[in-house]
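Example record used in the benchmark description.
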Amino acid sequence: MSQEIAVIGSPDFTTGFRLAGVRKFADIPDDRKAAELDDAVREMLADEEVGILVMHEDDLEQLSRGVRSDVETSVEPVLVTLGGGGAGSGGLREQIKRAIGIDLMEED
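Model output (structure tokens):
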């Protein structure tokens, strides 16, 4: 069973992914994120066809504590965040480690 990539965020954030062929997405304008973001994330987490969930790092900060914990500890789908001020190599390193189970950048 192949799994899909899903994207959640503002229409500006999701447009590029949709043009690249991502079929599962949730467009949530900034003025409706407080009301709709948690529900969209829960829906994607429950979707068995989703293997990777992509969000903007700033949107992750807007999730309620429970939903944020669920998405950060989820193994399938795995969360990948993009953008934001804290998305350095350490954050990407942790995302890769969580996704595949090993630290590819570990030094001998």
